Amino acid sequence: MAECSIPYGMSxxxxxxxxxxxxxxxxxxxxxxxxxxxxxxxxxxxxxxxLSTQQLGVFVxxxxxxxxxxxxxxxxxxxxxYINVNLNENNDVExxxxxxxxxxxxxxxxxxxxxxxxxxxxxxxxxxxxxxxxGIKSKLIPCDITEKQFLELFSIHxxxxxxxxxxxxxxxxxxxxxxxxxxxxxISACKNESGKIVAANFYLISNFRIIHLLSTITPExxxxxxxxxxxxNIIREYAMRNCVLDFEGSSxxxxxxxxxxxGAEEVQYHQIIRNRLPFPLNKLKP
Length: 286
Fold this sequence. Notes:
The chain has 286 residues and is α+β, with helices and mostly antiparallel strands. 31% of the residues lie in helices and 29% in strands. It has 2 domains: 7-106 and 269-283; 114-242, Gcn5-related N-acetyltransferase (GNAT) (Aminopeptidase, 3-Layer(aba) Sandwich), CATH 3.40.630.30. Strands 1, 2, 3, 4, 5, 6, 7, 8, 9, 10, 11 and 12 form a 12-stranded mixed sheet that branches.
């Protein structure tokens, strides 16, 4: 996974994110394509994108020709009658359409932290700078919380708004309980003057990437601009390190504007879909 430092394809991460997954492997793991699957589509097997993995596709170690992506795509077993997955930002999609796939370009937002904080701050939108100052004036205080506290806050203030069920929350709980002790994930939170937790984020860490995986905020946190405060703290802490802050999107315009206000830059990746379901089931999916 060293090529792009994207951790979603690590086997232990996939074991939690996707109950069933296979993989295509080149040689001695010189390249790997995870294949998360289920049989929930009218009993037919499908490849799908697990919720906690923004990008999968082919992960390559070392140099290989760009055609290797197409070769992996061609090797996907025929028993997967429906495929809807995201490749990663380093995957070339040339000629994939010839294999019967439709391709959609998606946008991620990342911020390079390999600079002094003062240099990164120059890229902040002026409204973001004002909101960060408001958070400081509101006397917000960074604090440590457990994964249980995080998920309780998330359940109350965020889960219903974005359609997260108890099963989804359980998956994230399992991820947190595994990743945090392994130093591959952490929670960033803050409280107000009265000691009430008002915002929190959960981050996934790889060698060169800090991924903003989950976020929650209370009404008091919105008023005090707590998310601006929290993200500014993370940027301050990790400035001058050889890594990027990965915001994981978003396709929602307002959320994308929020992330871009920290100076985040667009990086494209691709969704590929192929429908080989039998008639008339093939008419029920794109």
